[in-house]
UniProtKB/TrEMBL annotation:
Organism in which the protein naturally occurs: Solanum tuberosum
Biased segments, Polar residues type: 380-400
Location relative to the cell: Membrane
Function: May act as a catecholamine-responsive trans-membrane electron transporter.
This protein's encoding gene: poni1
Taxonomic superkingdom: Eukaryota
Matching SMART domains: B561 (SM00665)
The protein's name in its UniProt record: Cytochrome b561 and DOMON domain-containing protein
Cofactor comment text: Binds 2 heme b groups non-covalently.
Secretion signal, residue range per the UniProt entry: 1-24
MF-aspect GO terms: metal ion binding
CDD domains, per database record: Cyt_b561_FRRS1_like, DOMON_CIL1_like
Region (Disordered): 377-400
Length: 400
């Protein structure tokens, strides 16, 4: 039994180490200092073509102030970045374009792309762009703009590109390699980026996986395991069984929970700059306390050992702390996802159900225990039982 637990524990630690190594390998775009000292709340390195997107999203007026940096290009290139509102990739994208024009100045303008043969002619976009400007230095173009985003969404497909300027004409970009894969998606509200080819739905799926893994493990299995331990223990017939059910519940919850925790770290590392700080900190605390509980299981003293009482107090305190934090963090997670109201309702329902079952079992247990004490004291009337009726203090912690 202990060997199995040790193996499980160390494989969980291994998994989480793998996840945390990939965490933090992202380019640190927040260290970039703009010449005009502009500060953006969020930044994300685009996966290809030396490009980085910085932005601040203002939910109250649904606008975004952004800077698009495209490095490693000569000043005889043009660069463009755009949102594609209804489609993916190039055709249909609403672009911001910059190049050095014949007067030697960096010219920035908007251009809706309607076909593959586009010359990136100036034109109004399908949404308002109240401000646009650009600069070039250190082989890097930077386009600054403010976009009034289309109503009702913050998640868009995006594409970015560069190509050569020949005379007055913006010629087509390279038709191979990275230039054919420089598209993806961006969510201005939560900072997440979908890499080349990864669509909005695949990222949503990853978030859902994270949510389901953690809600089920930390949020449902762990409280259930505690309910089993607390209420089955009272029944003599369930004596070793409750312990195994409890351990099975908590270890499987822990293992699934660690996997869910890893997906959370990965989601966090994929959206540099946007931080759900509370959710993340509670998550890390949970991982530590959960791991401590598993270790504590391996180190618990024998039932009749004089320190067992302290161990029990410790185990219950940490256990209840983990469960309370876990439930709170599942709700934090729903809030971070804003818009998953049905999930929140479903989870609230499950928690209320578990709570109600616990209350009923609590009442039932006291009933049983009091009855049992009465029968016992009737059997050996003058036996001087000290009268305390605590259903849980009666040493039924067994020895498995
Ligand atoms: C990124 O750079 C910012 C600003 O210099 C710094 O505060 C932050 O700690 C850095 N983050 C990482 C992960 O290096
Ligand atoms: C939108 O709101 C932000 C602050 O919430 C403000 O700084 C910005 O100027 C506003 N933008 C527009 C275009 O109204
Ligand atoms: C070059 O771009 C600048 C800045 O946008 C603009 O003021 C100027 O008129 C442009 N020159 C030509 C020849 O188009």
């Amino acid at each position: 039994m202990n060997k199995l637990l040790t193996t499980l524990l160390f494989s969980s630690i291994l998994i989480s180490t793998l996840f945390s190594t990939s965490y933090g390998q992202n380019q640190n775009c927040s260290a970039f200092a703009f010449r005009n000292n502009q500060i953006f709340a969020t930044c994300n390195a685009l996966p290809l073509l030396n490009s980085v997107l910085h932005w601040s999203y203002h939910p109250d007026n649904h606008t975004v102030d952004l800077a698009y940096r495209h490095g490693g290009v000569p000043n005889t290139d043009w660069v463009a970045w755009g949102l594609n509102i209804d489609g993916t990739r190039m055709v249909g994208s609403q672009c911001l374009v910059a190049f050095r024009n014949s007067s030697g100045e960096i010219h920035a303008y908007t251009s809706p792309v309607s076909s593959y043969g586009t010359q990136l002619a100036e034109g109004a976009l399908s949404f308002n762009v109240p401000r646009i400007g650009a600069e070039y230095s250190n082989n890097e173009f930077i386009i600054f703009a403010t976009l009034e985003l289309p109503a009702g969404r913050t998640n868009f497909n995006q594409a970015w590109q560069n190509g050569a300027v020949s005379g007055q004409a913006l010629t087509a970009h390279v038709q191979s390699g990275d230039n054919m894969r420089s598209f993806g998606s961006v969510d201005f509200a939560n900072g997440e980026l979908g890499g080349g080819g990864s669509s909005v739905t695949s990222r949503q799926r990853r978030r859902n996986v994270h949510g389901v893994l953690n809600a089920v493990s930390w949020g449902v299995l762990m409280p259930m395991g505690a309910v089993f331990a607390r209420y089955l223990k009272v029944f003599k017939a369930a004596n070793p069984a409750w312990f195994y059910i409890h351990v099975a519940c908590q270890t499987s919850a822990y293992i699934v929970g660690v996997a869910g925790w890893g997906t959370g770290l990965k989601l966090g590392s994929d959206s540099t700059g946007i931080e759900f700080t509370t959710h993340r900190n509670i998550g890390i605390t949970l991982f530590c306390l959960g791991t401590l509980q598993v270790f504590a299981l391996l180190l618990r003293p024998k039932p009749d050992h004089k320190y067992r009482l302290y161990w029990n107090i410790y185990h219950h305190a940490v256990g209840y702390a983990v469960i309370s934090l876990a439930i709170a963090n599942v709700f934090e997670g729903f809030d971070a996802l804003n818009g998953q109201k049905n999930w929140k309702r479903a989870y609230t329902g499950v928690i209320i159900a578990i709570g109600a079952i616990a209350v009923l079992l609590e009442a039932f247990t006291w009933f049983i225990v009091i009855k049992r004490k009465k029968t016992d004291s009737n059997k050996h009337t003058q036996n001087g039982t000290n009268g305390t009726v605590n259903p849980y203090g009666n040493g039924t912690h067994q020895q498995a």
